[in-house]
Amino acid sequence: VQLVESGGGLAQPGGSLRLSCAASGFNFARYGMSWRRQAPGKDQEWVTGITHDSSNTYYAPSVKGRFTISRDNLNSTLYLQMNNLKPEDTAVYYCAADWSRERRTLGQGTQVTVST
Predict the structure, then answer these.
(1) pLDDT at residue 101 greater than cutoff 90
(2) Reduced to 3 states, what is the DSSP secondary structure of residue 107?
(3) What's the confidence (pLDDT) of residue 110?
(4) What is the dihedral of CA 112, 79, 103, 85, to 10 degrees?
(5) d(CA 52, CA 116)
């Protein structure tokens, strides 16, 4: 199983970034996926999730209305569109394959920094 995130970087407050996660080594279309993040000195937190067939999406209250998760099952890719970024969104963002409620595999992460 391999999950490779890309698209992180520096953005100004109010700006946008789009993260991608290229998945391989498993049947991507069968599993729910999610994005998680970890800010310096804080615990890792769940940000958003999507069902295997994109029929349902879920968001943490802190990002609802600003972030959009999507997936392309044909190309085994997960996306996170982040708009109206805030300094508190600064974190390492991880793509996760959700095998069950308790078990997941994470990628290596991509840094997102929101600052002037």
Answers:
(1) no
(2) coil
(3) 98
(4) 30
(5) 37
